[in-house]
Amino acid sequence: MVDQGKHAWVVRLLKAAVCCVLLMLAGVAQADGTLIGNYRDAHAGDDQAKVLAEAWSAPMPQFDPTRMQVFRVGDAGTWVILRATPPWTSGGRVLSIHNPGAGRVTLYYGPNEASTTALDDFGPPLHGHGRLIFDIPASVPASRPLLLKLEPTSQGPGAVTFSVESWPDYLRDDASWLAFATACFAVMLTMALMALCFTLILRDMTFGWYAAYLVCYAFIQGLKTGYVFHPLEMQMLSGLGDSLGMAATALSVSFAALFMLRFCKVDDYVPLLRMPVLAFAVGMPVIATCQMTGLPLLVDTAHLLLQPLLLLGALLLLAAGAIAAARGSRHAWFFLGGWTPPLLLTAACGAQLQGMFADAPWLPDVALAVGAVESIVLSIGLSDRALTIRHDRDKARQLADADPLTGVLNRRAWTESALAMLEEGANRPVALLFLDLDHFKALNDRHGHAAGDRALVAVASALRHELRPNDLLGRFGGEEFVALLRGAERENAVQIATRLCRRVSRLDVHVGNHEMLTVSIGVAVRTPADTVQSLIERADQAMYAAKLGGRNRVVCSGPTGPTLVRSKAAPSA
């Protein structure tokens, strides 16, 4: 089971990030107590004068504009009246509506003056970033009540707050939020781009599902905050926020499910939950498709099923990740560290739409920041996965290239490496040694194959320690070894081969009848016309000449035929 202490740093990272965001946003969200609000449902025949007169003569429900308030917008809309408390200030001011949702809002300045705007409205010259704003000119006294009308909308209401501040204060707050939101979106999209690169490089769709999930999540946050409208000016999306938001939400959790299946290795650790998670991943795009058709029956069905399925699916992914982590999936801990905080914040933001957490207007911004933190945490997990994949592939390649008994290169791997070495440069001297153990068959016959295997392992170890690290040593087959010496001239190659003969003879492997295990070596130095195959053939012929010459010796292949060089390690047999 994975030691949870090893992953405590992930929890600490999340806590530190959330605390930093809360501290950064606390000053922006503090109530200043300068506004008093009243509201009532709009009715047919209402006009601004009538509503204002009614506000003075009859009690209206009151609310605190600095606390998040959900207005259940009726068929005709909702009237909101804001009054500033003394002392009043003069000069131009800005009315800001935070988290307004996708509905339109109208501000009435006077009998014949009004301004209407929305997050996806590109008509007014003034646009807030992440909020609706209205310019209140200096000609409007600060003591005059501000009358707003929240227009009816088919989309869900937002949990809004109101503030009135001077232009310098507004511009400072707006610049801070814009820098904050841009940084969050930049982090998410950068992590998505990195994951996409890993997808193409490693050909692993785990990274692709993660990139798709991040893009969808960033798009959802961009719609909620109005960032895709202002400052990105994506006018083509105007009026499509509701349908696109639902589709992006459905697709994001679908991609998250597909990502989690592979990232947490659900097949290995939680096989029973594989089919439910996969069914959820397939079902959510169906919901999105129903929403996009525009057919009333399908759209109503999608609206009815979306929220319950999102809740059940999120809990299913959380449970699958937790079980996988408990059963030993290291990457499941990364998933839990990245997935859990956004899930909790999404639930908290949803609860705000029901009137809860009214004193936490900063939650939507925290959700945006935690999305960026999630992308970093999961990207660290994906980087760890990439390193694990590379390590596993290198290990598999090493096992495929190595001779299982001696650990040196096998014939295929040695041939491929030798071809690459010869292609490096035709002018560089290269020598090939072909080695064959003497009396090896007798060793197997008299002492058994286990003794022969031990002798092969000992010889391979001796050869590997005698040769240079950049020389290629391989087992060619049976008791035959080959070595390709980089940068070795004829004399140098013969000296190295002679040293190898002495090293093998000093292993003191007794064959029987006072015979010791020795080696015969053929040497071939590359000529311009040589290939790997021709080098092997010439060195093999030289090795057979060494055998015929008495074994335990070196023979070098030359232009006039093999040249015998007797080993000084031991007398020839």
Automatic annotation (TrEMBL):
One of its GO terms (molecular function) is diguanylate cyclase activity. Pfam families: 7TMR-DISM_7TM, GGDEF. It catalyses: 2 GTP = 3',3'-c-di-GMP + 2 diphosphate. Keywords: Membrane, Signal, Transmembrane, Transmembrane helix. It comes from the Bacteria. Residues 428-559 form the GGDEF domain. GO terms for cellular component: plasma membrane. Residues 1-31 form the signal peptide. PROSITE patterns: GGDEF (PS50887). It is an enzyme of class 2 (transferase). Gene3D superfamilies: 3.30.70.270. Its EC number is 2.7.7.65. CDD domains: GGDEF. Its cofactor is Mg(2+). The chain crosses the membrane at residues 177-202, 209-229, 244-264, 276-299, 305-326, 333-354, 366-387. GO terms for biological process: cell adhesion involved in single-species biofilm formation; negative regulation of bacterial-type flagellum-dependent cell motility. This is diguanylate cyclase.
